[in-house]
Amino acid sequence: MKITLDEVAKKISDAEKILVTAHINPDGDAIGSTLAMLQILRTMNKKVFAYIDDKLPKNFVTLPFAEEIQRPQENEKISADLLIILDTAPDRIGKVLEITDAPILNIDHHITNKNEENFLYVEATAAATCEIIFHLTKILGANITEDIAICLYTGLATDTGFFNYSNTKPATFRAAAELVECGVKPNLIAENVEKRTAREVQVTSAALQTAKLFYDGKVVGMFIDENLAKKTDTTEGLIDLIRVIDSVDVAFLLTCKGEKICRVSMRSKTVDVSKIAQKLGGGGHVRAAGCTLEKSFDDAKNILIRAIGEFMVETKKISPAEFEEDKETLLADFEN
Ligand code: 5GP
Ligand code: MN
Predict the structure, then answer these.
(1) Which of 25, 167, 273, 276 to mutate to test the pocket of ligand 1 (most atoms within 8 A of CB)?
(2) Stated pTM of the model
(3) How do the pLDDT tens digits run along the chain, 336 residues long?
C-alpha cells in the first residue's frame, strides 16, 4: 500500500523497537540512509538495530556508527514493531527478511519498486533515498547532527555522481547546502569516497584494457573477470571512465562475484536501462540500473550484450543491421 511521507512519520512515531536495513551490494546511499535513520531514530529515543546482509565496502566503514551495522546470523530472530527497508524492495535484503516478522515500512526512490503489499513510500524524483530521509527529518522534527548530515550527504553525493547525473535537482542542492550548514565538509566526503589503494588504481588501468565497444560504438562494456576481481575491493567509479565516450549511449560493467554469479551495472545517456535490467531480473533507474546474472562469465557477457542490443533495436537506438553485425572492438581500434 502506497503511503505519504506524513504517514511514514506516523508509523515511525508509533513504533518503539525498529530494525533498519538496506540492499545487499550496499552503496553510499544504502549505507548512508541506514546510518542516518539509525541515528535519527535514536534521537527520538527508539530502540534501533541496523542490519545489512553483506560486507560493507571499505570506503564506507568510516561513516559514523558504521560499526553498528550487523550481518544477520544463522537462525537469528528479533521481535520488533517495524522493519524499515531503505533504497530497495524487500527482494534485495538477503536474510534480514527472515530475522523478523515485524511489519515492513519500505522507503525508496527506485521507479522499479512495486512493493505495494507492504507500506511503501517511493519517490522516484528523489535523487537518493538520503534525500527522502532528509525531508523526513523535517516532518519528524529531528535535529540533523553533523554525523547524520555526513551520512545523508554521502548518499546524495554518491547516487548523483557528486551532483553530476540527471537525477540532480534543485531540491538535491538545497538539501546538500543545508547538510553543509550542519557541518559536512564536501572535500572530506569526496576524499573518503574516492580513496583507492595503489593496487586498485593499477586495476583501473587493467580494467580499461578490457573495455570493448559494441553496436557501432553505441555500447561500451568493461569486464572484471575472476582474476581481476580478486585484486580489488571496489569497482565503484569504473563505469564512469567509459560512459564518457562520445559515441556511447549505454555503458556497462560486468563483474565476476563468484562461481556463476555476475554483477551487472549499466549507465546510459538516453536509453531506459531500468527496462533492460528488469528483463534480466534486476531494476534501478532510467539512467542507472543493474542486475545479477547467475551464469558463467562468458554466458553472462553474451546474454547482456544481446539484451542491450535487442532493447536498443526495439527503441530504435540502433538499426537491426547494427545489431546483426554483432562486432566487438577494442577502444584502441575504434574509429569514428
Ligand atoms: P549500480 O550500478 O550502482 O550497482 O546500480 C545502479 C542502480 O540500479 C542503483 O540505484 C541500484 O540500486 C539499482 N540496482 C542495481 N542492481 C540491482 C538489482 O539487482 N536489482 C534492482 N532492483 N536494482 C538494482
Ligand atoms: Mn539509492
Answers:
(1) 25
(2) 0.93
(3) 999 999 999 999 999 999 999 999 999 999 999 999 999 999 999 999 999 999 999 999 999 999 999 999 999 999 999 999 999 999 999 999 999 999 999 999 999 999 999 999 999 999 999 999 999 999 999 999 999 999 999 999 999 999 999 999 999 999 999 999 999 999 999 999 999 999 889 999 999 999 999 999 999 999 999 999 998 878 888 999 999 999 999 999 999 999 999 999 999 999 999 999 999 999 999 999 999 999 999 999 999 999 999 999 999 999 999 999 978 999 988 887
**Measured from the CA of 274, which atom of ligand 1 is nearest?**
8
CA of 321 from ligand 2 middle (Å) equals 37
Taking the centre of ligand 1 as the mean of its atom positions, its distance from the CA of residue 161, in whole angstroms, is: 14
Distances (CA, A) of 137 to 60, 122, 148: 22, 16, 10
Task: Please list the alpha-helical segments (H only) found in the chain.
Answer: 5-14, 28-43, 96-99, 129-140, 146-159, 170-181, 186-194, 198-209, 226-229, 238-243, 273-279, 297-314, 320-325
Residue 164 C-alpha cell reads as: 553530476
